[in-house]
């Protein structure tokens, strides 16, 4: 598994965070930016990070151009008629491996977080329904739901009450806010998740903003019972 691994500033690590990038990005883009931001906060000095890299593969939406992608995208739609379920499930397996790597390093599952941006956010949300172990929290920046039919059939109940943070901009042209609301409704109503914090940021496009990062950090501290 190709990934950037960042050791805790103070050892031993007692918290582990997995961060997944979006389409066309790499571990050294958005994930490393978030990891570096958190590493500058004293509460996270014993946190280690795993930032996996998506494989380089053709993306149908971009005329088959090859780029880092967790799964193929055929159309930009809140209700796509065709999805890459196989690619999506394979990438969910990457998350499971990252979580297990943190556990094997001695980090308790309740101190592990999975988060991601865009494609990575879609995966982080879905992993809440598929991970075979209960962890500390999930977070999604501009997330959406991709394989609802499959998730209904395979979902597990380990993380039904695990805290989930989902932030979305109301001016997002890539993943419109409607897609965020659809994901929220799906995971609450269809999957039964009980602890979703959904935040909308006025004027924010397909990105993150300081207010979102501030709320994300507060969310993590609550979920992981940090001081």
From TrEMBL:
Keywords: Fatty acid metabolism, Hydrolase, Lipid metabolism, Serine esterase. GO terms for molecular function: carboxylic ester hydrolase activity; palmitoyl-(protein) hydrolase activity. Residues 4-222 form the Phospholipase/carboxylesterase/thioesterase domain. One of its GO terms (biological process) is fatty acid metabolic process. It is an enzyme of class 3 (hydrolase). One of its GO terms (cellular component) is cytoplasm. It catalyses: S-hexadecanoyl-L-cysteinyl-[protein] + H2O = L-cysteinyl-[protein] + hexadecanoate + H(+). Its EC number is 3.1.2.22. Hydrolyzes fatty acids from S-acylated cysteine residues in proteins with a strong preference for palmitoylated G-alpha proteins over other acyl substrates. Mediates the deacylation of G-alpha proteins such as GPA1 in vivo, but has weak or no activity toward palmitoylated Ras proteins. Has weak lysophospholipase activity in vitro; however such activity may not exist in vivo. Belongs to the AB hydrolase superfamily. AB hydrolase 2 family. This is Acyl-protein thioesterase 1.
